[in-house]
What we know:
alpha+beta, Immunoglobulin-like, 2 domains, six-stranded antiparallel beta sheet, five-stranded antiparallel beta sheet, 1 helix, flat
Amino acid sequence: MLVLRGGTVCGGRDANHKRWASGSTGDKARENMKAFSRVLVAIVAAIAALFTSTGVSHAGLDNELSLVDGQDRTLTVQQWDTFLNGVFPLDRNRLTREWFHSGRAKYTVAGPGADEFEGTLELGYQIGFPWSLGVGINFSYTTPNILIDDGDITGPPFGLESVITPNLFPGVSISADLGNGPGIQEVATFSVDVKGPAGGVAVSNAHGTVTGAAGGVLLRPFARLIASTGDSVTTYGEPWNMN
């Protein structure tokens, strides 16, 4: 045993114990940091998986709505794969909004007389703008067609000499005066006659512009099924900011 000045008494075993205790505390701290790092990595991986799954689910059914009509048929209309890509306007006008629209609309009819169903399937937008002076909307779209006129087609046993098909989806150009803002306007960009218990239409890179809009422009896409009897059901998507 050693007696130090000042009356402090220390033993060799006590000093070693203190050094061991200090080393043990450092080891525990390092283990805690490793455990925290593993938990943090797991949380980041879980969040990444969540966002990945959300992106995949978006490339599918976006929204739908059903209605039982006056003939006890269930009319369902859906929007799929909706994507509005806002781009910088070619006219470089700050009051112009330009975008490209891709997506699909589907419908189903269930119940008595579903096979004899006839009606119209529409696609369009609700357009919201904070202020405008004589706003006009211009919308146009075209889809590819097959045109092989007097072509050399070999292979089919029935001996085709030429194939000419109409546009798979007709081209349309729409111009509408939305008047002075602020306000919300609804524009049906196109419609197609449908028959039978199920069907759908698709559009790819349909081009649209809004001119004369001061401030932000929001587009809410919709799909509407109108039966020949007058019954209708409309489903609306989430607003898209065209700023």
